[in-house]
Amino acid sequence: MAAVLRNALEPWHVLVVVLVVVVLFGSKKLPDTARALGKSVRILKSEAKALRTDDPASPADNPR
């Protein structure tokens, strides 16, 4: 199974995925889509960080 995973993402696979994305979204919508995706990732990271800092049940806050 490791051999299958090791060879799963060859350069031509990446090329096919890129072509499919361009065909689906169109070259004019790609910058807007990438911008929205980046913004969503930043929001997700900031929310995850806020949850970690606000979590009262954190093991670091409750030493035994």
Automatic annotation (TrEMBL):
**Keywords, A to Z?**
Cell membrane, Membrane, Protein transport, Translocation, Transmembrane, Transmembrane helix, Transport
Q: Which domain of life is it from?
A: Bacteria
Bilayer-crossing residues are 12-30
Q: Does the keyword Zinc apply?
A: no
Subcellular localization(s) per the UniProt record: Cell membrane
Q: Which InterPro entries match?
A: TatA/B/E, TatA/E
Report how it sits in the membrane: Single-pass membrane protein
Q: What is the protein's major site of localization? A: membrane
- Quaternary structure and partners: The Tat system comprises two distinct complexes: a TatABC complex, containing multiple copies of TatA, TatB and TatC subunits, and a separate TatA complex, containing only TatA subunits. Substrates initially bind to the TatABC complex, which probably triggers association of the separate TatA complex to form the active translocon.
Q: What role is this protein assigned?
A: Part of the twin-arginine translocation (Tat) system that transports large folded proteins containing a characteristic twin-arginine motif in their signal peptide across membranes. TatA could form the protein-conducting channel of the Tat system.
Q: State the family named in the UniProt similarity comment for this chain.
A: Belongs to the TatA/E family.
Q: Which PANTHER family does the annotation name?
A: SEC-INDEPENDENT PROTEIN TRANSLOCASE PROTEIN TATA
Kindly provide the name given to this protein in its UniProt entry: Sec-independent protein translocase protein TatA
Q: What is the lineage of its organism?
A: Bacteria, Bacillati, Actinomycetota, Actinomycetes, Kitasatosporales
